[in-house]
Specification:
The structure is a single chain. This protein is an all-alpha fold. The protein starts with a helix and ends with a helix. It is 83% helix and 0% strand. The chain has one domain. The chain is elongated and about 45 Å long. Helix 1 crosses helix 2, helix 1 packs across helix 3 and helix 2 packs antiparallel against helix 3. The longest helix is centred in the C-terminal third of the chain and has 28 residues.
Length: 72
């Protein structure tokens, strides 16, 4: 996510519960992905989990950016 987009999201999150919830989920997904990324090797199950988390994160970003675009 670009810095300008992040600023808009954080600004809007102060007033919008949905964006605030999506942003918290985004941060949680980033933490989980970082933990998986720190592992030297991933099991097959962890690789599937990593892909699933990345997809969820991307969908959340798309949703947040859509909400931001509609707000401005």
């Amino acid at each position: 996510m670009e810095s300008a987009d992040r600023k808009k999201i954080l600004e809007l999150a102060k007033r919008n519960f949905t964006i605030r919830k999506l942003y918290r989920e985004h941060q949680d997904l980033e933490e989980k992905l970082a933990r998986l990324g720190n592992k030297r090797y991933l099991t097959a199950q962890e690789e599937v989990e990593q892909k699933t988390l990345k997809i969820r994160k991307l969908r959340g970003v798309d949703t947040m950016l859509s909400l931001v675009a509609n707000a401005f």
